[in-house]
Design goal:
With 120 residues, this protein is mostly beta strands. 0% of the residues lie in helices and 61% in strands. The protein contains no helices and 11 strands. Strands 2, 4, 5, 6, 9, 10 and 11 form a 7-stranded mixed sheet that branches. A 4-stranded antiparallel sheet has the order 1-3-8-7, with no helix packed on it.
Length: 120
C-alpha cells in the first residue's frame, strides 16, 4: 500500500516562506503525477499545484508566482516552496500522488495533511 508522509508545515508571519515535503513509499513502480491541495475551515478542498512525471506543472490562480512545486523521482518525493505567504493561505495542505505499484496496480494516494498557518 502506497503511503504519503507530509512534513514542513507550521506557523509563519505574512510575507514569510515555508517548504513542504511529501515522501511516497510502499511498492512504487512509478509516479505519474504528484500534487498539493489545501482545505481551509469551512471551505472545500482546492487545487494548489500539480507536477507530472515529465515536469509539467499546473498552479491554482491564487498561488501563481508565489508557490513552486518540484519533485525528486529518485526519492519519490515532492516539494512545495511557498513564498510571500498570506493569511488566506492558511489551511491544511494535503499531498496527492497517482502512479503504478510493483504489483502492476494503479494507485491514487493522499497524505494525512499538514497545517500551515499564516499570521497577519
Amino acid at each position: 500500500q502506497v503511503q504519503l508522509v507530509e512534513s514542513g508545515g507550521g506557523l509563519v508571519q505574512a510575507g514569510g516562506s515555508l517548504r513542504l515535503s511529501c515522501a511516497a513509499s510502499g511498492g512504487i513502480l512509478g509516479i505519474n503525477a504528484m500534487g498539493w491541495y489545501r482545505q481551509a475551515p469551512g471551505k472545500q478542498r482546492e487545487l494548489v499545484t500539480t507536477i507530472t512525471s515529465s515536469g509539467d506543472t499546473n498552479y491554482g490562480d491564487s498561488v501563481k508566482g508565489r508557490f513552486t512545486i518540484s519533485r525528486d523521482d529518485a526519492k519519490n518525493t515532492a516539494y512545495l516552496q511557498m513564498n510571500n505567504l498570506k493569511p488566506e493561505d492558511t489551511a491544511v495542505y494535503y499531498c496527492n500522488a497517482v502512479g503504478r505499484t510493483i504489483w502492476r496496480r494503479d494507485f491514487k494516494s493522499w497524505g494525512q495533511g499538514t497545517q500551515v498557518t499564516v499570521s497577519s
